[in-house]
Design a protein that fits this description.
This protein has 355 residues and is an alpha/beta fold. 50% of the residues lie in helices and 15% in strands.
Length: 355
């Protein structure tokens, strides 16, 4: 499955790099709720627990579904523009039409991205939320009782938590975000829409007369058109790594939040191919044979009691799964296992699922 963005090739006026203190604040709150998957943020998590009032930490845990895997759309930039302050972004959330606010909240609670029909908080929806978790049902019930009061409480909490645990962190993050953002901006000016193809899990296709299609490997399917009236905002994050977030709520900019300076992670298809390749007992024997030293096909055939063509077929599967290195000496090709790729397979799979 994939999320596909359709853009004019030039990308002129339709792509912008944008810092967002609100998005980074909510990335920090997510890290606080799931610290095990964010070891690089361990120091900030420890400081937050040490220096933040217990009541604020308890409230952060209660609101956590809003900045979980399906983060509420209003916790990322709602409009393009110059560098924003946290207060300015919170003010935009406060001014959001209450119907959109409710729908975006429900969307986060049920774990749904993209276009959604008019979402209401009737008994059926509360029952659905209860089947997901009691905490989500409780948030839904509070939202249904008084949406405006709910929004006010949420904004009040975000303001208080930022003052206690984020405002001192934000200036330290800005240089990394500025540096990465400047590189992205330069790439957008030079390559237009194709600059998006360098983001994690992305691939690009285009036709002479048609739009550029940027396809992101995600665990759901959706298509969104990007144009100057509905731009794509690229938001770098430090504490949001390794997650890769795409939001495309109707009527608002498409937002992509990606890890600044983050090394490329494999696609779901690559991980699937690697797992499939390693399921075969013969290929496991090959991996053992080429783990420590590079070995030629003919020698592998001798060691494993197979024909050279049989060995070649298995090596091709390992090569397609990006699990081996090859190098040539004269007419002989040697194969060696990419031990690091095998070692990362567990964390890589987890990272793909966390997206």
């Amino acid at each position: 499955m994939a999320v596909t963005l359709l853009l004019d090739p030039s990308g002129a006026g339709a792509i912008a790099v944008q810092q967002s203190p609100l998005a980074e604040l909510c990335a920090c709150l997510h890290v606080l709720d799931e610290p095990g998957h964010h070891p690089a943020s361990a120091r900030w998590v420890a400081r937050a627990h040490r220096e933040t009032d217990g009541g604020l930490l308890a409230t952060a845990a209660a609101w956590a579904p809003l900045w979980g895997a399906f983060r509420a759309r209003y916790l990322l930039p709602l409009s393009p523009g110059p560098r924003r302050t946290l207060a300015g972004e919170l003010r935009e959330v406060a001014e959001l039409p209450i119907g959109d606010f409710v729908a975006m909240t429900v969307q986060a609670l049920i774990g749904k991205n993209g276009a959604v029909p008019a979402l209401s908080l009737g008994d059926d929806m509360l029952h659905r939320l209860r089947l997901i978790s009691t905490s989500r049902m409780e948030i839904g019930a509070r939202l249904r009782a008084d949406p405006e009061a709910f929004r006010g409480e949420l904004l009040g909490f975000l303001t208080a938590f930022a003052a206690a645990a984020f405002d001192a962190e934000w200036p330290a993050l800005r240089p990394d975000l500025d540096r990465d953002g400047a590189l992205r901006e330069r790439d957008v000016r030079r390559r237009g829409a194709l600059a998006l193809a360098d983001l994690p899990t992305a691939a690009a296709t285009s036709t002479p007369d048609g739009p550029v299609r940027i396809v992101f490997d995600k665990l759901y399917a959706a298509t969104a058109r990007v144009h100057p009236g509905r731009p794509c905002l690229i938001v770098p994050t430090v504490h949001g790594r390794p997650h890769f977030v795409i939001k495309h709520y109707p009527g608002y900019p498409v937002v992509i939040q990606y890890g600044a300076d983050e090394p490329a992670t494999p696609t779901l298809e690559t991980v699937r191919r690697r797992l499939a390749a390693l399921q075969d007992p013969t290929r496991l024997r090959l991996c053992y044979a080429i783990l420590r030293n590079p070995v030629a096909t003919a020698e592998l055939a001798t060691q494993l009691g197979m024909t050279a063509p049989q060995v070649s077929r298995h090596l091709r599967r390992l090569r397609e799964a990006q699990l081996v290195h090859t190098h040539r000496r004269g007419s002989v090709v040697y194969y060696q296992l990419d031990a690091a790729a095998v070692e990362r397979l567990g964390p890589d799979l987890l990272s793909v699922l966390y997206r």
